Each structure stands twice: as C-alpha cells, then as structure tokens.
Amino acid sequence: MKKLSNKDKLLDISLNLARVGNWTADSYDDKKNLINRFIKQTQDYINEVPEKDLSSDMRVVFGRFKNEFKRLKSEKINGNNKDVWAETALTWANILQHRSGLA
After folding, report:
1. What are the pLDDT digits (tens) for 31-57?
2. Which region holds residue 78: left if phi is over 0, alpha if psi is between -120 and 50, else beta?
3. Would you list the domain boundaries of the chain?
4. Is 0.70 topped by the overall pTM?
C-alpha cells in the first residue's frame, strides 16, 4: 500500500470539510450521523499529518486550522449557528486545498 503524501492527506481533509460543510448547510438533521462520522475521520487524518514535515508556512496554517477544527468539533450545531458552522468548514476546505501545495 502506497503511503500518502502530506499534500494528499491535506486534500483528504479538505474534501471531508467540504462534504461536512455542505451537509450541515443543506440537510443537517438528515445527515447528522454521517457528519459526525466524517468529523471523526477528519480528526484521524489530521492526526496522521506529521507537522515536522510541513513547510514553515504550512505549519502556521495547519496550526490555525487545527485550533479552528477543535472549536468546530466542540460546538453544538443548531438552527442558530448551522450556517456559520458550515461556512467555516467550507472556508477551511478551500484554504487547505489551495495551500496543500506548500506541504
């Protein structure tokens, strides 16, 4: 089995964030369990990224992302914050996708 590069790992994280963001915005009540499963999977992917192997610029971005992801995970999604939560996940999906080349 081929070992994934950090770039590929970051792209996997980005893809999961995009999925979770879209599901949260469009159909949270129907996909709550799937969203939780993908959040857990995303955390596993985050844990697999060896930060010491990232460029210094990407380490800063990834550190900020990890803090924001930790906050998102702990925030209970409801009707008042659902759209902001989803937008934050989608924003980080875009940031990581565009910055993955720095890995």
Report:
1. 999 999 999 999 999 999 998 999 999
2. beta
3. 6-47+54-102
4. yes
